[in-house]
Amino acid sequence: MITFKRSRFFSVLAVLGLVVGISIGILLGYVFWGRDQGAAPAAAEESGDPVTRRYDIPTEGFPSIGPEDAEITIVEFSDFECPYCRKWHDEVYTQLMTAYPNKVRLVYRNLPLTQIHPQAMNAAEASLCAGDQNAYWKFHEKLFENASNLSDDLYASIAADLRLNTTTFEKCMNDHKYQSAVEEDMQFAIDLGVQSTPTFFINGLAVVGAQPLSVFQQVIDEELAGKIP
User: Fold this and answer.
1) Does residue 88 contact residue 218 with C-beta atoms inside 8 Å?
2) In this structure, are residues 125 and 176 in contact, taking their beta carbons and an 8 Å threshold?
3) What DSSP state is assigned to residue 148?
4) Strands 72-78 and 205-208
5) What is the pTM for the complete model shown?
6) Which of 66, 78, 87, 101 could form a cystine bridge with 198, CB 3.0-4.6 A?
7) pLDDT per residue rounded down to tens, the chain (229 residues)
8) Cβ distance 137 to 63 under 8 Å?
């Protein structure tokens, strides 16, 4: 028979309570913040250690905001028509960038879920066409502001409002100049095992879903402190 001293017994209970509390917190995060579809990157699930596995995610040539030499690089695979992507953008993005001035670089890569979001592909192409005129992030913001009303007419209207050369913008859209680039992004994400939007990689560490600011802060703070292998 195994016996415990009373103090040790209550210490064990306290630890168990903490573990259960953390587990419930993570579960509630997924329930209330949600994901558009799917689960964690398949490769992460198969590894058995998704928390500390680092993925090699190219960032060169993709839209980014923040210092090039930032200690933390977050790659976001997202969809302009995804309600959870918009939720994260509206409720976390600005707070996150403000909380870590000059320490975080956000790289945006496209994963339009075309089977359920009919305007996601065109929205992604439109953002990159705006990027040709140095207006990517302004256009990016407008797309999320109008995520429930995406259309070709909206893209043309945003381009005009931002005083872009509308003839050049329309030609870029009509020629589908960036369709293949978006499709390459999609294929890369699929090959990696990404199954839902938004999915993030913080210095290569996967975070799935529109998680709250606290989840990102925990990973970033531990990464900055060198606590993650």
Assistant:
1) no
2) yes
3) G
4) unpaired
5) 0.80
6) 78
7) 333 344 443 343 333 343 333 333 333 333 333 344 433 454 343 333 445 789 999 999 999 999 999 999 999 999 999 999 999 999 999 999 999 999 999 999 999 999 999 999 999 999 999 999 999 999 999 999 999 999 999 999 999 999 999 999 999 999 999 999 999 999 999 999 999 999 999 999 999 999 999 999 999 999 999 999 8
8) yes
Matching residue, tokens 């996967």: 206
**Is 144:113 a contact under the CB 8 Å cutoff?**
no
Query: How many Cβ atoms from other residues are within 10 Å of residue 126's Cβ?
Result: 27
User: Are 151 and 119 in contact, with CB atoms under 8 Å apart?
Assistant: yes
Q: Which two tokens stand for residue 18?
A: 């903490």
The residue ranges of every structural domain in the chain are 1-33, 37-224
Q: Assess contact for 168 and 131: CB atoms under 8 A.
A: no
Q: Which of 64, 118, 33, 85 is nearest to 194 (CA)?
A: 85
What are the CB-based long-range contacts (under 8 Å, 24+) for 136-141? 136/63, 137/63, 137/65, 138/162, 140/63, 140/108
The tokens 């900055």 sit on which residue? Answer: 224
CB 58 within 8 A of CB 189: no
Strands 199-202 and 72-78: antiparallel
The position carrying tokens 């990157």 is 41
